[in-house]
Specification:
The complex is a heterodimer of chains A (479) and B (123). Chain A is of the alpha+beta class. Chain A has helices at 11-14, 41-56, 88-96, 153-163, 208-212, 236-242, 280-288, 290-293, 341-359, 363-369, 371-395, 398-413, 420-430, 435-443, 445-460, and strands spanning 33-37, 62-66, 85-86, 106-110, 112-117, 120-125, 133-136, 167-169, 175-177, 184-187, 190-194, 197-200, 223-226, 228-233, 246-250, 257-265, 268-275, 305-309, 312-316, 322-323, 326-328. Chain A folds into 3 domains: 11-76 and 153-223 and 316-380, FAD/NAD(P)-binding domain, CATH 3.50.50; 100-145 and 225-313, 2-Layer Sandwich (D-Amino Acid Oxidase, Chain A, domain 2); 383-460, no CATH class. Chain A has a 7-stranded mixed beta sheet, sandwiched between helices. The longest helix of chain A is centred in the C-terminal third of the chain and has 25 residues, at 371-395. Chain B is α+β, with helices and mostly antiparallel strands. In chain B, strands 1, 2, 3, 4, 5 and 6 form a 6-stranded antiparallel beta sheet that branches. Classes of the chains: A alpha+beta (479), B alpha+beta (123). At the A-B interface, helix 2, helix 3, strand 4 and helix 9 of A face strand 3, strand 6, helix 2 and helix 3 of B.
Chain lengths: 479, 123
């Protein structure tokens, strides 16, 4: 087995970056073994990039992905519990990397956002009039929805990693033994193999993370918040008619909801709610609002929820998601606040892979080459909290909601104009840009002037907004 | 309308980029194929045909020059646009993102090299 150093090492000392230069270098050599725990996007993308980069420098690695879940199953058994949006920027980056999502994986190409408020709805078009966002299923769709043409996004990425040469092991990793020179995996009490590098890509809902808090690697789980995701089954023409190729976002005065959206996917509509303490009462209240009801066919009740879950999301990441020979990628380490979790998985997985292949696998290497990206995401999340705070403040007041809607409608009606509010909302809802960029758009004098004008107009003119029309065919056009 | 795809559909023969115009984005073919055509000198010369997964228009991203050729859909083609801003921002923070572009550009130089040698031998 090829390893840079086989000497025993002190994990506590490994957390001190100053000590790194004095210790043996830990690096991957020909034949080094890498365990990736979790076969979701962060694990599969880490594997893909690590093997691709290793090939570039003529390094032969043996990568085992441990994923007990089968993404061929529908329902919770095959799902990684996520809204399933591949952002505009990530679609472009993956295409540049040569990773083009096949039609079976894309359940709907999204070309616009429909912003629903209690004072009307308005459509925000994609900047280039293209379907640039992919709505996907992480597993094989909701319960009882198995379809031969449907391909899981996670399965697609896992197959890509497999084609690069990774081995997929269905055993569950329950613990890691850190007493030897290299981490050794444990599977339900049984001892597994030693590895030169262990990549934790389990997401934040794994019990392994609780176990790892007791390990001598200084790991503390991310701070989490509960979300709610459910799926309504309709038929293709109905989804087409009522939701089209738009993602439907709600700007309502609903406390504790930071973000709520309906996402069309084939014959399924996914509801995704993010916020604080989302409980059954809040969900039912939200689903009873006319703005939500109008996105579905008129009936006494909404369609049956065929699948639902309340997964936790990472709202405050880990300060040091690494130690000697171990690195945490995706949700189990650092991710973006509320949006573009798959994009953050791509970025952290790739940065960890580049560090491991080109630099080394010691805590010092990860500190120098991986941590800057994690800190950048964490800093941007702080800006995100401010942006979501402003958004929450504005949506509480009806005249503010009218002003936002009116400003977006005005911008969308003038294709040649610079669309400050549309751009800020698009970037905020899609997660395509950093929160810093969203804040910069919102700080632009023309944004402030436009919003001030619309706020004043909304405050001093009669509220003659007609009741929300709601139907997709009725609100295809701005205004 | 096909909804489980990305990008925009171009009809057969429709120009995606035109020679001489200024460009600020590159393109990745999602389905179908496109013809790369040189229109200088009043005549059309097909330089290459690109297929699903290939990209084009990258020279305008790096050089800020006008498009060196016209690209037309060969049959119906679906093409995804890649913004210069998104790409350059990410290449700055992740230079390995350019590996795939470099690999393709290197392959194109190799092809041109082979054509040049072939042309010299013939005449």
């Amino acid at each position: 087995m090829g390893v840079g150093s086989s000497n025993s090492y002190d994990f506590a000392a490994s957390l001190d970056p100053r000590a790194g230069d004095q210790r043996h270098r830990l690096e991957l050599n020909d034949g080094s073994r890498v365990a990736v725990i979790g076969g979701g996007p962060s694990g599969s993308l880490f594997t893909h990039f690590a093997l691709k980069m290793a090939e570039l420098v003529g390094l032969k690695l043996a990568v085992d992905i441990f994923e007990p879940r089968s993404f061929e199953h529908c329902g919770p058994e095959g799902c990684n519990h996520c809204g399933g949006i591949v952002s505009e920027s990530l679609v472009q980056l993956l295409a540049t990397e040569g990773i083009n999502l096949p039609e079976g994986v894309i359940q709907r190409g999204i070309d616009s956002y429909m912003l629903h408020t209690d004072v009307g709805s308005v459509r925000i078009e994609t900047p280039l009039n293209e379907q640039r966002i992919a709505a996907v299923f992480r597993g094989n769709g909701p319960r009882n929805a198995e379809h031969p043409d449907l391909e899981s996004f996670d399965r697609f990425l896992l197959d890509m990693a497999r084609k690069r040469g990774a081995r997929v092991d269905r055993r569950l990793v329950t613990d890691i033994d850190w007493s030897g020179p290299r981490p050794r995996l444990k599977h339900a009490g049984r001892t597994g193999d030693d590895y030169d590098l262990v990549v934790i890509a389990t997401g934040v809902n794994s019990s392994l993370l609780k176990v790892l808090q007791k390990a001598p690697i200084g790991y503390r789980r991310p701070v989490t918040a509960a979300t709610y995701i459910c799926e309504f089954q309709l038929d293709h023409p109905t989804v087409e008619r009522y939701l089209g190729t738009s993602m439907h976002v709600f700007l309502l005065d609903t406390p504790r909801i930071e973000f709520a959206a309906l996402i069309p996917k084939g014959n399924i509509v996914t509801l995704c709610m993010l916020g604080d303490d989302i409980d059954a009462e809040l969900i039912d209240g939200f689903l009873r609002t006319p703005e939500v009801r109008n996105c579905f066919p008129p009936a006494a009740d909404l369609p049956i929820r065929v699948c639902h879950c309340s997964p936790m999301i990472n709202v405050r990441g880990v300060d040091r998601p690494y130690a000697d020979r171990v690195v945490f990628v995706g949700d189990s380490g650092v991710t973006r606040l509320y949006k573009d979790g798959i994009g953050a998985a791509y970025r952290t997985a790739k940065a960890a892979a580049a560090t491991a292949v080109f630099q080394g696998v010691s805590a010092t290497d990860f500190d120098k080459h991986f941590r800057p990206l994690c800190r950048g995401i964490t800093r941007d999340n702080r800006v995100g909290q401010l942006v979501f705070g402003v958004n929450a403040h504005l949506r509480k007041r009806r005249f503010c909601r009218r002003a936002i809607r009116s400003m977006v409608a005005g911008e969308q009606a003038n294709p040649g104009s610079r669309r400050f509010m549309s751009r800020a909302l698009w970037d905020l809802f899609t997660g395509s840009a950093s929160y810093r960029e969203v804040l910069m758009t919102m700080s632009h004098p023309r944004f402030i002037a436009g919003l001030s004008w619309n706020l004043a107009r909304s405050l001093f003119t009669r509220d003659d907004t007609s009741p929300v029309r709601g139907r997709n065919d009725g609100h295809q056009h701005a205004g | 309308m096909v909804t489980n795809t990305l990008g925009r559909v171009y009809a057969a023969g429709e120009a995606i980029v035109s020679q001489g115009e200024k460009g600020s984005c590159m393109y990745v073919i999602q389905s179908g194929s496109v013809d790369v055509i040189d229109e200088s000198g009043g005549q059309e010369l097909r330089l290459a045909q690109l297929k699903t997964g290939d990209f084009f228009g990258e020279m305008a991203i790096f050089e800020h020059e006008v498009r060196s050729a016209t690209v037309r859909a060969h049959g119906e083609a679906r093409v995804l646009t890649i913004d210069r801003r998104t790409l350059m921002q990410r290449i700055q923070s992740d230079p390995t993102l350019a590996f795939n572009l470099l690999k393709t550009l290197s392959h194109r130089i190799r092809l041109l090299d082979a054509e040049l040698k072939h042309g010299k031998r013939r005449g």
